[in-house]
């Protein structure tokens, strides 16, 4: 009897809560005039700030790979007020690879 194929990991959705990002140690990407999305590697935190009221929210979609295979994937979404930083606290393995992209809602 053949072993069952491994199922894809469940898609994780987290909603940001208000917070204040550190002044350094962030890797950031922007959608000009719309949002700023940053990853804090020490602590595995996503930081999001919506810069315009033209959209209802902003987010970051991420994929986490271990040993060359997709281990986890999901998104952090913020519907906080314009100009307010939001944070999603995650926990990734130190030896894993993370790909991510910001988006607007």
Overview of this protein structure:
The chain is an all-beta fold and 105 residues long. It has strands at residues 11-15, 17-18, 26-31, 35-40, 45-50, 58-66, 69-78, 85-89, 97-104.
Distance between the termini: 46 Å
Helix content: under 10%
Q: Could you tell me the mean pLDDT?
A: 92
Rg is 15 Å
Which regions have little confidence, pLDDT < 50, spanning 5+ residues?
none
For the structure shown, list the relevant keywords.
about 100 residues; mainly beta; 5-stranded antiparallel sheet; about 0% helix; about 55% strand
Set out the fold topology.
Elements: E1 11-15, E2 17-18, E3 26-31, E4 35-40, E5 45-50, E6 58-66, E7 69-78, E8 85-89, E9 97-104
Parallel strand pairs: 1-7
Antiparallel strand pairs: 2-8, 3-4, 4-5, 5-8, 6-7, 6-9
Summarize the structure.
The chain is mostly beta strands and 105 residues long. It has no helices and nine strands. The chain has strands spanning 11-15, 17-18, 26-31, 35-40, 45-50, 58-66, 69-78, 85-89, 97-104.
């Amino acid at each position: 009897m053949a072993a069952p194929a491994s199922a894809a990991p469940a898609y994780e959705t987290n909603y940001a809560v208000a917070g204040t990002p550190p002044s350094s140690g962030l890797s950031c990407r922007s959608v000009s005039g719309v949002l700023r999305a940053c990853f804090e590697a020490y602590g595995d935190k996503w930081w999001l700030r919506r810069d315009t009221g033209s959209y209802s929210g902003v987010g970051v979609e991420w994929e986490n790979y271990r040993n060359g295979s997709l281990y986890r994937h999901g998104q952090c979404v913020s519907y906080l007020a314009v100009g307010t930083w939001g944070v999603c606290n995650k926990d990734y393995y130190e030896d894993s690879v993370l790909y991510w992209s910001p988006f607007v809602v």
